[in-house]
Write a structure and sequence with these properties.
Length: 167
Amino acid sequence: MDKIIKSLVMASLVTFAVNVQSAELKVGYVQVDKILQEAPQTAESGKKLEREFGPRSQELDRMAKQIKDLEASLDKDGLTISESERRNKERDVQNIKIEFQRKQRELREDINLRKNEELGALQDRVNKAVQSVSEAEGYDLVVYSGVAYASKKIDITDKVLKSLGKR
């Protein structure tokens, strides 16, 4: 009796293993780099950042021109003005340069923070689009970039981009 049960268990395990191996697995591949470059949300995000940080960038441009003009004036008039007046102008130029560098650094930091926020939001949208396409088309496994090889027939990047375009 024990041998019969063991034989039945073994037979069912072998049958299960054969069924699992014969099941068709549908695999897809997504090129994240291509999506990040071509998704409509990427361009929207860039325009949004430009609008947000444009005024500060223009202020920095004005400051850079002011520094350049002051230095040119100092070079031109340096020999004709008094020593104390020259030192005062040099100090003013140096103070404006320090302020310019501070504002420039703050702007870079703020832009990087916002870029990361926008990238995170885009990554969430991409993940949802990949999930939506995968579920709609019955994929069992979808992998992102970083694979050694993926054939064109399993590349669903264009489908994901199309899905992102609808949002």
